[in-house]
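User: what does the whole thing look like in 3D?
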Amino acid sequence: MSEQVRERTEPAAAGLLQDKVALVTGASMGIGEAIALELAANGAHVAFTYRQHAAEAGAVAGRIEQRRRKALALQADVASFEEAQRVIQEVQGGLGRLDILINNAGMNWDAVLWKMTEEQWDRVISVDLKGTFNYLHAAAPVFKEQGSGKIVNVTSINGLRGKFGQSNYSAAKGGVIALTKTAARELGRYNVNVNAVAPGLIETPMVKQAPEQVREMALAEIVLGRLGTPEEVASVVTFLCSEAARHITGQVIQVDGGQYM
Amino acid sequence: MRLKDKVAWITGAGAGIGRATALRFAKEGARLVLGDLDEAGLQETAAAVEASGGQAVAVAGDITRREAAERMAAAALERFGRLDILINNAGINRDGLAVKVKDGQVQRMGDDVWDSVLAVNLKGTFLCAQAAAVPMIQRGEGGRVVNTSSIGALGNIGQANYAASKAGVIGLTKTLALEWARFGITVNCIAPGATATRMTAGIPEKLMEGLLAKIPLRRLAQPEEIAEAHLFLASDAAAYITGQVLFVDGGISVGV
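Assistant: Here's the predicted 3D structure for the full assembly of 517 residues, as structure tokens:
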């Protein structure tokens, strides 16, 4: 696990999340990157994990620092239970505390049921579902102890409706929704809010690689008539992490332009 | 300021959540049209908005009548030249069992009790949404409609009328989201849980204890917390959200 800590001392303008410490999993690109940057723009110091893309992660850390916030990039595979424990400790050590956890890291590896290998099923469930559990499990004692915390899990509308070719991904994301509600029940009495966002089709590297036909079929479903941007998901996550949303817990907020109603 | 130069119409602005939303929106730079049946409450809210440095026009009226809804929408155009946001907040409850049989006596929820709640909560919401959408569509710059459902939509003993009206608001919200997306108008609704307003002030202490035990966050919402949800859905932060129901209920819909 490599680690980069950089600091600047200039004061930032007071934001919605001023001086909170956030951890975002899977933030070297796409929605995770946008969330990390948006949290920083609102005053939070941001730690984040990445698995493979060290150069991109370094660039994200640099952009967080441009916002005069502390950044901490940690290499980790969210599927590892042990690494999750270590990441939480390193965030507390490096940034002093933990206020916000965003379980964003995810992957898809599509195939119809009859062609899906055991490896495909296991890997996607390990990253998308177990990965979320790993970080909830590691962060829960911290939040419980301090009597505060904000958790946002990134799921998908496909976790609500199912999706052709995504039995593994849909099952994992549906699992994240049930996990969100359970965590909200268990942690509510400790003043911890646990919610999920369910994006529809968002302009990310994952989606840009999709065949044109898939994009067009999706576009036809979206009542607002356009794909969403990572920033439009990040703004909702930021709201859920702010005190403005302190009475919202156990909810799944779809950010999908009306793609699934 | 997150609503700078925007014009928002808030119904049920004479008290509670509507008043809190008016004050919150004014703080973010919105100019306001305030509607309510209760003229005294309405004037109090308008005065509070103006005292905080905001601009508000108060229009008393009964939103179950098309004429009143149209008059409120027209006030936005006359006074401020545009309408960007509708907060469809006005609502009432008149609770009672649908059927009560005790000691040989039969009591039914009366037609008037059913009709009046449906008229305000569902038809009133529909009439105001229609009245707001016309100038938004004509102007061609989109808009925001935020309706008010409730955890009551999930069913609640003694609230057949209220639950039906609030579940109806969800169907209405989704349909209007589909119809108006092409005009850049997003339509969502919030679903408050138990909130500290006049509507919950009369709940006996014993019942309140039982209620709090069912809320993961162990407290009622404050009107200001619902106002924050209104602000979120009316702001750019929610640009890609439409047709959704946002529960602001301390987790009561999920359970403890």
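In plain terms: Chain B touches chain A at residues 174, 177-178, 181-182, 186, 193, 215-218, 221-222, 225-226, 228-229, 231-232, 236-244, 246-251, 253-256 (CB under 8 Å). Chain B has a mean pLDDT of 97.
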